[in-house]
Amino acid sequence: MDKRFAEQRAIVIGAGIGGLAVAAALANHFGQVVVLERDELPAEVRPRPGAAQTRHLHVLLSGGAAALAELFPGVHTRLIEAGAQLADVGADANFELAGTPKLPRRELNIYSWQLSRPLLEAVLREQLRERENVQLRELSRVIEIVPDENNRAAGVRVESREGKHDELDALLVIDASGRGVPTLDFLKATGRPLPTETTVGTDLTYGTTVYSFPDGAEPDFKQAWVHGKAPEQGRAGFLVKRENGLWDAVLAGRLGDVPPIEDDAFLAFADTLPNQAISTALRRGRREAPIVRFGYPESRWRHFADLTDFPVGLLPLGDAVCNTNPVFGQGMTVAAKEAVMLHRLLAESGGHASSLETIGPAFLKEMEDLVKTPWSGATALDLAYPQTKGERPADMRQRSEYQAGVMKLAAVDPDVHRLMVEVRHLVKPANLLHTPDLQQRVQAVLQHPAASS
Ligand SMILES: Cc1cc2nc3c(=O)[nH]c(=O)nc-3n(C[C@H](O)[C@H](O)[C@H](O)COP(=O)(O)OP(=O)(O)OC[C@H]3O[C@@H](n4cnc5c(N)ncnc54)[C@H](O)[C@@H]3O)c2cc1C
């Protein structure tokens, strides 16, 4: 592909999934792409302190796997060779959201990609290192984004581990730092307003560990996702097969209900889940790692698209814009899809420095649209708990009834089951669940429950 910005440099702040994905996108268009990461980027597969969530379960949804394949040709083969497990979301999943109809196990040919987050990062880094115009610089903390005389973003100031400061100019700076601090600081420093934020409190705590199962003791599923009935119970559990014959086990509680880190109490917590799939499995397995906790206080969506004077030359992406309740496993997929969006916008552009004046607002607007589906899906469950902080949509009751109707249909109709999963995995748009035909069927099933059979 001809590079539109062959003489130019792009900088990416952060080498998480968002940063790695967008670096691959930019490498198609820019002469040089520099990724600056404050952590060490280890050759071996291990979690990193800069992204503390890398110790915890990270499932890649089908839509995210497709987006990564557009950016990293051949990545699916590499992931499988590295040990990633594919789980058919219908046939291989023990899925239960208590209070909704139990979905039968049936083949849907839609897959969760199950591998540890450090392994996914390692494979993506390996592919990026093969691209001659990409540099991954570890132990390089971005201290600030530097403005030009017109208050556009013109580069960054970086600090090395030894405390040495360096300035690097760029036509485009991407903030994939997770928290988005560099962008917020830049807006403040250049006298611009900060974006409005929508927040929904989750007050969720993960207790995570790793299990192995002796021969013959493996569960008959590759993925269990069991969630209590809202609003009565906020507990959840996940047990997911990944590389090296290991399984990620997570128990989660919300609103101050914290999973224990002692073995017996951990198992007793698992016993309280709506079904015993996870607790039975764990009792047959062996714990291979300490139980570690992670607190996730709230989901947050920053509406950068609404700012009329957002700086040219800067684009935030991934968690820096929006993070949602991790039990839905959408964050990496959203970030990868955003990188694909930017790739398309750059490919369609004229390739002049001034193109960024139109690409920026278009990207922020498309990102706002992309985030709507994962945000409303995840927060609908969170907001069902009365103690959860956050504004409830006026039509919340109708939305949740409609969702219940779709699930009832999904239980008896494989096509609706598949479509529901495709929307959840960000493969298909959510409006396909609202076609006139489906709306009619959902109304029928809600008014006359027997109509679903
Ligand atoms: C407990 C938990 C479980 C999750 N499970 C899933 C899941 O199952 N599936 C899923 O898709 N998503 C999951 N997510 C979400 C997922 O982690 C993120 O949404 C996704 O990785 C995109 O994040 P990101 O790349 O924007 O930010 P991050 O992954 O947070 O990466 C940001 C990077 O920027 C670096 N950085 C920060 N500041 C600077 C700086 N100033 N200079 C240089 N580098 C900097 C950090 O060190 C880090 O490496 C989970 C999240 C949590 C918290």
From TrEMBL:
<keyword id="KW-0560">Oxidoreductase</keyword>
<keyword id="KW-0503">Monooxygenase</keyword>
<dbReference type="GO" id="GO:0004497">
    <property type="term" value="F:monooxygenase activity"/>
</dbReference>
<feature type="domain" description="FAD-binding">
    <location>
        <begin position="10"/>
        <end position="180"/>
    </location>
</feature>
<dbReference type="InterPro" id="IPR002938">
    <property type="entry name" value="FAD-bd"/>
</dbReference>
<dbReference type="Pfam" id="PF01494">
    <property type="entry name" value="FAD_binding_3"/>
</dbReference>
<protein>
    <submittedName>
        <fullName>FAD-dependent monooxygenase</fullName>
    </submittedName>
</protein>
<dbReference type="InterPro" id="IPR036188">
    <property type="entry name" value="FAD/NAD-bd_sf"/>
</dbReference>
